[in-house]
Design goal:
This protein is mainly alpha-helical. The chain has one domain: VKOR domain (de novo design (two linked rop proteins), Up-down Bundle). Helices cover 71% and strands 0% of the residues. The chain has helices at 4-12, 15-44, 60-64, 76-95, 102-130, 135-155, 161-164, 169-186. The radius of gyration is 18 Å and the shape is globular. 30% of the residues are buried.
């Protein structure tokens, strides 16, 4: 049974959670902004080659021109820039000591869950449909994993099995799984 005290403790967040939201939001906004910049440049100049086109596999150009990069209409990078900037602002508030209502944390979790599901889908699309990896996109993948996990863990009730797990275990396992999928799919072509 949740007491008002434990609910209030979860609702306040923690400075570490705030710093994670701030850092993840800034990294995600930077990656989304760089990708959006390159996307706009390719619209202005069809011959423009993004700096993140490294080889046949590490190629932002191939990913950003695929239909999956505009899944909801506007470029995913534009939506990501806005969402990550808002997340960074929220993280700054929590890191500074703001006490957020539990419903706001639940809304944040729902948004991160949707973003995490989209990230998993985009990973599969890049690996098995598009056949290329966008370095900026992989930076977004890298921040979505801990953002979703740590907010999920933060909202878990005291005594929950989620809180009993070592905090690093789930993100580490997901990073290893994604790395294994990438290496299995592309192997030496990554070099």
């Amino acid at each position: 049974m949740t007491t008002e005290h434990s609910r209030a403790a979860r609702s306040t967040g923690g400075r570490r959670t705030g710093l994670l939201l701030l850092t993840g939001g800034l990294i995600g906004a930077l990656a989304s902004g760089a990708l959006l910049h390159d996307r706009l440049r390719t619209l202005e100049d069809p011959l423009f080659s993004p700096g993140c086109n490294i080889n046949a596999v590490l190629s932002c150009g191939d990913v950003m021109t695929a239909w999956q990069s505009d899944l909801l209409g506007p470029p995913n990078a534009l939506l990501g820039l806005a969402a990550f900037a808002a997340l960074a602002g929220l993280g700054l508030a929590v890191a500074a000591g703001a006490r957020l209502p539990h419903r706001l944390w639940q809304g944040l979790w729902a948004a991160l869950a949707a973003g995490f599901a989209l990230t998993l889908w985009l990973i599969a699309q890049c690996l098995y449909v598009i056949g290329a990896l966008c370095p900026w996109c992989t930076a977004v993948w890298a921040v979505m994993i801990p953002l979703f996990w740590y907010v999920t863990r933060h909202l878990a009730r005291p005594g929950s099995p989620l809180r009993a797990l070592p905090h690093w275990l789930v993100p580490s396992a997901l990073y290893l799984a994604v790395a294994a999928l990438v290496v299995t799919r592309f192997g030496t072509a990554l070099l």
